[in-house]
Structures are given as C-alpha cells and as structure tokens.
Amino acid sequence: MARRAPSEDDDGGLDSLLDTMTNVVGILVLVLIVTQMSVAEVVTRVTSESDIDEEKVAELEQQLLTKKKEAYELSRILVDPLDIDAEAQREELRKSKELLARRQKQIADSKKQMNEYAMKIESDREMAEKAATEIANTKQQREQMQTLIATSLEQKAKLEAMLDQTPKRQVAADVEVSIPNPRPAPPGSKEASFVCSGNQVFPVNAEVFRKRAEVKAKAIIQRLGLDRDPKAGIDPEKFTPLYEKLKDQDNFFDVEYYVQGKTWPRIRLTPREGRGATESMLATPRSRFRRDLLSQLDATKYYGRFYVLPDSFDVYVAARSVFSQQGILAGWEPQNEDWLYTTHITGGIRLGPPPPPPKNPPDPNAPKPKPASVID
Questions:
Q1: What is the residue range of 45's domain?
Q2: Which UniProt keywords apply (predicted)?
Q3: What is the distance between the alpha carbons of residues 253 and 202, in angstroms, rounded to a whole number?
Q4: 116, part of any domain
C-alpha cells in the first residue's frame, strides 16, 4: 500500500493526539499523587493502631491477672453445697441470734442505765440548787434573827432602865375564888340573870320584857285579824314589819323586837352604856345597885346566873364575891365579845301554819331528863 503524502489534516490529528496524551499523563500523575498520599495515610494509621493495641493488650493482661486472683480468692471462700452441715449452720445461727439478743439487751440496759444516771444527775442538780437557795434563805434569816436579837436586847436594856426608875407599886389583894362545883339549881328556885359587859354588871328583867312583848304582839294580831284562819295560821309577811318596829327599854337595856326564821317572835337586849354596876359600886354596901337590887334577892328563892363577856371577868369576880357574902348560889356562862342576850316571848305565839303532829308521840312513861348544872 502506498504511503500518502502528509497534508494539513494530518497535522491536526497529531495535535489532538498530543493533547490527549498530555491529559492522560496529567491524570496519571494525579492518580499517582493521590495513591501515594493514601498509602502514607494508611501506613500512619496502621502504625498508630498498632501502638494502641499494645497498650490495650497490656491493660487487658492486667485485668486478666486481677480476675484470676479474685477467682482464686472466691474458690477459697466458697464452699461446695454438698459439704455444708445444715445442723451446724442452724446451731451457729442460733448462737448468733442469742449473741445478738444479749448484745441488744446489753445496749438497752446501758441506755436505761444512762437515762437513770441522767435523771439522777438532774435530780442532784435540782437538790443542789434547792440546797443553795435554802442556804441563802437561812443566811438571810440568821442575819434577820441577829438583828432582831440585837433590837430585843436594846429594848430589854431600855425597859430595865425604865423599871429601875419606876417606883414600886403595892401588891393588890388576893382574889378569893371558890372551886367550881357544877350542880343543878335547888328545886323550886328561880333564875336571876345578869349580863357582864363593858366591865359592868347589868341585871336582866327578862320576864317583864317577855310579858310586854306578848301584849304588843297579840294587839297586832287582833288589829289585823291574823288569827281568823287556824289552818293558815298567822301570816308572817303581815305580822313581822309591824312587830319589828316595836321598841322597849328599862334603866339597863334597850330592847329590840325581831322574828326568828319567820316563825318565832323574840326580843334582843342591848346593854345601855354606863348604866351597869362597876366594881366600886359592888364593893360599896350602900350603893344603889346593892341596896335596891341585890339586897332584894331571897337566897332561898333565887340563884344567880351570870353571862360573862371577855372584857368583864374582873367585875364578874367582884359580883360573885358579893353573892357569896349574901349566901346566894350562882353560876356563870362565858360568851364571845359580840354576844347579846336574846329570849322568846310568852303566850305561845307562832307564825305560819301549825306544824303537823309528830309521827312518834313522846312516851309519857319515859324518864325525865336530868336538870342542867347551872350552879358552880
């Protein structure tokens, strides 16, 4: 085959070929570069991974050694279930429970003992505080007592000095007092009453006052017609205001009218100040009191009865001396300081409806009570 002569078309083909070859070479170069880079990276990574694996291997070997030791220790502790003695284990468990119970009891006893110690300490502390307070009070009382003793000694010295300067007084005459001999009044004798108040003796003319009160009370009843209904009796609401307005008196007493318990009209005697007989009057035989009153008492018909208030014992003793001189029997009855002579009125006047008859009437054959001992 004959060769053709070169032409312009052939030049263009070579250029294209050269361009293609250039491109292929460039691509190959790039592939080579990339390949080299990948190989280097792979080498580096492999090298790095080799180093990490060695460290992990060493760590795992250490862990394996530890586990082997733990397995050895466990093999020493663990017992084969077939080798366990159940009775021995139960006995050991029972002993352990007993030991635990004893220890718990010891702990409880210890706590109780500690609480008791704490309470005792608190009690001792309170007792100590109380004792300290008592000591302080005792000290204060002792100081007060010393001051009082010093004051008393000083007052005693003053009184002794005053006593030394006081002239001696004559000793008063002895008072003769008879030994008490309580006994009833002689049969048939009447009581002559005397009130000893304000260290004076007041003769009581009670019978006259009772009669006057009876007359005045019956006058009220008749004027108001209060006795027309025996079942209803005397109305105390109508009777009392008029009765308690009444007054009476004599030379020795003011007489007050009053109703007791809305049932019984009574009188109350208040001594008139300065109207009684004094000790000097009793000591004078010709005094009016002795001449007009005491000399009129018949020793065979009367006996004296003295009601003595706390402030009048001396005048009572003087009066009893006069009675003894005249041979008149007498007795006395001490009273409190605000006592007043009171008595009923005659006539059997009772306010309100009459009381029901007694369920058990008195036995007429019953022995009579013994008379009161009014003589001493």
A1: 28-78
A2: Coiled coil
A3: 8
A4: no
